[in-house]
Amino acid sequence: MSMETTAWSQLRTVMTAEPERRPLTRATLRRIAGFARPHRARIIRFVLLGMATALLAVATPVLAGRVVDVIVSGGEEDTVVRLALLIALIAVAEAALGVVSRRLSAVLGEGLILDLRTAVFDHVQRMPVAFFTRTRTGALVSRLNNDVIGAQRAFSNTLSGVVSNIVTLLLTLAVMLTLSWQITLLALALLPVFVLPARRMGHRMARMQHEAATLNAAMGTRMTERFSAPGATLVKLFGRPEEESAQFAARARRVAEIGVRTATAQAAFITALTLVSALALALVYGLGGWFALRGTLDAGAVVALALLLTRLYAPLTALAGARVEVMSALVSFERVFEVLDLRPLIEEKPDARPVPDGPVSVEFDGVRFGYPSADRVSLASLEEVATLDARGGEEVLHGVSFRARPGETIALVGSSGAGKSTIAQLLPRLYDTDGGAVRIGGVDVRDLTAGSLRDTVGMVTQDGHLFHDTIRANLLMARPGADDAALREALDRARLTEVVRSLPDGLETVVGERGYRLSGGERQRMTIARLLLARQRVVILDEATAHLDNTSEAAVQEALGEALAGRTAVVIAHRLSTVRAADRILVVEAGRIVEQGTHDQLLAADGRYAELHRTQFGHRRVEEAA
Prior knowledge:
The chain is of the alpha/beta class.
């Protein structure tokens, strides 16, 4: 490794190092050892390869010096040829070890990344919905990408680098001291001139790098918001393109200015260090040549010392920045563990049992619930705030009780924010109750297995979310093993057959981000088709027909009527016309059920339901509204 390469490596280490400095505990180190344990055989081989490479790196300068000595002393040609062949063999061995070491490094690093990413991903999948409503997606993805890769560096780069550099340094010092202790000490005296500027300039450029990263992140966030379909629509309707362009250009200009300053500082730094290395070589050649001419040092020793000098400065410089690199990698581990230590609020019991077979009832028994506070479900670093919001925990459902018999349809109506969707979210156990119980088939949902609960309860939400994937892939989320016949049947029952036929790629058509290549009604019918394909025994419709026109709504209501036959259903709707046929209607206000009965019974009672009905249909006679 040349001095210029070493300088760049040291500078990059300092610039990209994590500035945070938190004390590391033994528990953290033990957990790191736990992740490393499955890879210990590879780690040992990796370290041994690094040591072997270090031995070969020191051998080459010594042999080169021997060649010079043989030439100067007028030795035999065979000796020179044998030494040259040995140098060539060492070079080949170094190259082979380099390839093997690089492959082993990749296997070790990627294996560790796989373990960490899988652990974090699986853990995040178990987190409650409240976690995702508070967390910034970009910050969470960063843990799976940047921090995991930072943790991986501790094994694939830092560990081997520290071991091989220590071995190289000790061997190089031993050989140089043997050849000339005076030149060795003078070479070491120049080390601070090489290392100290790297640290000082590196920290300075690190600040510029972090500022540029912050500005780039801000630009990225702004572009993501403006380039999404709803964001672009909002800008076109209410935004001012000139101001948007000016604000973006101002941020981009600052990034460009920082880039120029960083490039200039880097060039000056590398030039200065290259000059120092040249002065060091001049010192070796000058002082070594003087000793050689006086007969106190062989000419080959001078050449060997000059070659060994780079082998001395490279590991010394790398080890000087090793602490920064090690701390950066360990902090990345801590940031990963921070997510893994966030305990999910909803966990499956060890003795959980499946949902009973056959049609099942749904029961809410004195349910009390308040959304969890931020400190129970989130991290300040994931929300990108200094302090978590202390609000939360206030009760929003107050003793809700009702029962839906097997095959019965229950409708929830009421004002916005009354608690209807909250009731619906407790049924598939997106949240757990704070008091009372939610039962399916007479069994508390907290006693059921997560898999059987997913297979039993299906839900169509208000936004009709779809992934940026094909129609087929979005449908197969409900039933991965479904064949084309089952897909066509679900699409037909959701009144989407003609829509899919009209698309250029049929089932293979990509629907776009959040399904924005489809109309609002088509997106909603896609989610209903997904529900029909899943064939779950309990169905929750949370404003499932909210985005449909009258024609589509009638078609989908017909399909839903067929799909819900024999199934227990909970339907949430603002439009009262969609719930008149429900077996029972519950009126929810301020987290309580204030009325319940059939459509006709509630109208006759002239209470809150009748008031909502008059608001939607005017002061016409009840018979006309019906």
